[in-house]
Amino acid sequence: MASRGDENAELEAASAGGTPASQVEPEVVNNSVYQPINGSQNHQKEKLQALGAVQILNGATILALGVFLGSLQSIFRDFRPFFLVFYTGYPLWGAVFFIVSGSLSVAAGRKPTKKLVEHNFGMNIASSTTALVGFVLVSINLAVNKYSLKECPSSQSLDLCICMGVLSNGIMSLMLILTLLELCISISVSAMWCAENVCNSREAISSPGNSV
C-alpha cells in the first residue's frame, strides 16, 4: 500500500508541471553551447565575403591601372623608365591572383566545403606571396622615377618629362597602397582558416570527454 501511495504521489507531481531533470538538461546545453557557435560562424562567413569582395576590387583596380600604364607607354615611348612595373607584368598576373583569391573567399563564405576551403587557403597564401613581390616591384619603380626626374632637366621636353613623372608616381603610389591592402587581407584570411582548423581539432579532441 505504501508503494502505491508513493507512485500516486509521483504521478501527481509530474502532472502538476514538474519535469524530469533529463528533459531539462538538453535544452540548457543547446541554449548555452550551440547557439553562440552558430552566431560566430555566421559572423565569420559575412566577414570572409566582405574581405573577398575587397580582394576582387583591389585586383580589378590594379588591372585597370595596368591598362592605363600600357596605353601611356605606347604613346610616350621616350619615357619607358616611368613604366617599369608594366614591363614586369605585375598589373596583369597580380590582378589575376587577387581576383581569383577574392572569388574563392566569397564562395567559401557562402558555402564552406572542405575542398573549397583548402583551395581558398592555398590561393590566399599565393596571393600573399604575389603581393609581397608586387610591393618590391612597385617600390623599385618609385625609386627609378625619382632618379629619372633628376635627369629631366637634360631632356628636350622638360615639361612633359615632369608631367609623366608626377603621373607615374601617383599611379605607383596608388598601386602600392592597394598591394599592401591585398597583402594584409590575404594574411588575415589565411590566419582565419588556420585558427578555424586549430579550433576544430581541439573540439574533435575534447568531444570524447564531453560525451562521457
From TrEMBL:
Region listing for Disordered, in residue ranges: 1-23
Gene label: MS4A3
The record's subcellular locations are: Membrane
Bilayer-crossing residues are 50-70, 90-109, 121-144
What InterPro entries does the record tag this protein with? Answer: CD20-like (IPR007237), MS4A (IPR030417)
Source organism: Felis catus
Membrane topology category: Multi-pass membrane protein
What Pfam families does the record point to?
CD20
Name-wise, this protein is: Membrane spanning 4-domains A3
The answer to whether the entry has keyword Transmembrane is: yes
